[in-house]
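Async update (no meeting this week)

Hi team, since we skipped the sync, here's where things stand on the single-chain job. The sequence we agreed to prioritize is pasted below, unchanged from the tracker. I ran it this morning and attached the output directly underneath so nobody has to dig for it. Comments welcome in thread, and please keep replies under the output.
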Amino acid sequence: MSTADADHFEARFRADPDPWRYEASAYERAKYARTLDACGPGPFPRALELGAANGVFSALLAKRCEELVTIDFSPTAVGLARERLAGAAHVTVLQGTIPDDLPLGDGFDLVVASEVLYYLPGDDFRRTVDRLPRLLGAGGRLVAAHWTGQAPDLHRSAAETHRALRTGSGLRPVPDPVGATAAPARGYLLDAFEMR
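Output:
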C-alpha cells in the first residue's frame, strides 16, 4: 500500500475512532452476520483477518476461533483493536501492510477479507491474490465481502475484486454461501472460497 493510502487511512482513524460507523451501522451489523454465516460456525483452530480496522468485526469473529491473527496498517486502528480485544488472549493484532507483512507460512483454517482488498494498489492486490491460497491449510476457507458503492480511494470495484478472486486465486468458489447471490441488493458482494 502506498504511503499516501496509508496516511489517508491513518488520518481518518485519528479524526474519528469509528470512521465508517462499524459499531452503529445497520449495514455493517447485517454484513457482519452474513459474513460470519459464510465463515461457518467454527471453532476455527487458526484464523486470519485482513484489515481489522478498529476491531469491531474481529471481536465477533474471535468468539469462533481458538487462535485469531488480525492485521491492519494504521497504527491508530491497531491501537483501538488491541484495546477492544485486550481480554482475548487468543487474539494477536498485528500492525503491518498487506501483503508484505502477512504471517509467514500457511495452515490457517479461515481467512477473512472484509472491505479491504479493493483498497490495495495494483501490484499489492495481485501479490495478495496470489498469496491467499498459500495462507490456507487443507480444507481452509477464504471469505471476502466488499461494498458495491464507489469512492475515490478505491483502486477497483467490488465486482473487479471478486472476479479476480474467482479467476486468479486458484481457490474453488463455494456455491452460494448463505444465499450470497442476494447480497448485491444489500450493497455488498460476499463470496467464500476453499482450497481445490
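Quick observations from my side:
The domain at 3-194 is CATH 3.40.50.150 (Rossmann fold).
The helical segments are 3-15, 26-39, 56-62, 75-84, 122-135, 158-168.
Reply here if anything looks off.
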